Amino acid sequence: HLTPYFQAHPVQVLSQQPIGALLRSPNAPSRMSKWAVFLGAFQIEFKPRPTIKGQALADFVVECTAREEPSPEDPEADDWWIVFTDGSSAAKNSGGGVVVIALEGFIAYYSIRFGFKASNNEAEYEALLCGLRLAAEMNATKLRVKCDSKLVVGHVSGEFEAKDERMKKYRDTALELLKNFTAYSVEQIPQAENAEADILSKLSSDTPEHIRRMANVEELSEPSIHAFPVGMICARPRDWMDDIVAFLKDGALPDDAVKAKLVRTRAPGYTLEGEKLYKRAYNGTLLRCLRPAEA
């Protein structure tokens, strides 16, 4: 099949062996004479192989040398959620600000209004407790807490002793909530790095519009230490994702026949990676499914 292509173009054969002379020799064996007749249909020119240039050899070595593959990134590096908290105590009203940075960079703003009087330290603690509850409700497992209160961070880390009875209750409540996470850290940061949480704790008409429109405003009627800390966390209601996740994970279907048929029909369009559910788009792109609290 390649004969027409070779007949249409001149061919150069580079070799250190005298192939051309052997084919033209009258003393060549009969087999080589047949080869010479066959190759005579082509415009073949035999040339000695030139010496390899030093630069070409260097380029070949550079191109073909095995390179050390970069070590893969630690898969657990992005498993940490981040929560910024700040409390504000004023004569007219007190409040707390919480900024939750979830996986994949999703950010949620919360402004908590206190329906009771609180000192500055109590306001800082209330903001911390609200941030811990919110992170637990959003199913965070690893949490980094950043707070600008040296006292609160010192109490929780054990660096400072809580002498006041109310501070002890706040500390114990915070430590109890931190048990909801497989790993956590509590870090003190400068106020300049906690600007958004500070703004949320003093939410008013002067607050930047992008924060006012995105912030979830919640009311806290009584101090957190007056209630059992775990009881403050509302159980997540079931939603449409639960049935699909259960089917993809264990093959379980709802008892209701109609719902079971719907789940079986919809499930092929979804994929489960760990605990995350993704919808497969028409072009093959995986779209992350969010629960109401995350959305």
Give a verbal description of the structure:
- Residues 77-206 form the RNase H type-1 domain.
- GO terms for molecular function: nucleic acid binding; RNA-DNA hybrid ribonuclease activity.
- InterPro entries: RNaseH-like_sf, RNaseH_domain, RNaseH_sf.
- This is RNase H type-1 domain-containing protein.
- This protein is an alpha/beta fold and 295 residues long.
- The chain contains 11 helices and 11 strands.
- It has 3 domains: 3-64, no CATH class; 80-232, Ribonuclease H-like superfamily/Ribonuclease H (Nucleotidyltransferase, domain 5, 2-Layer Sandwich), CATH 3.30.420; 240-288, no CATH class.
- The chain has helices at 3-8, 19-24, 30-39, 54-64, 120-137, 150-157, 165-178, 195-201, 209-214, 240-250, 257-266; strands at residues 11-14, 44-47, 80-89, 94-101, 107-114, 142-147, 183-188, 215-220, 270-273, 276-280, 286-288.
- Helix 5 (120-137) packs parallel to helix 7.
- The model is unreliable at 228-235 (pLDDT under 50).
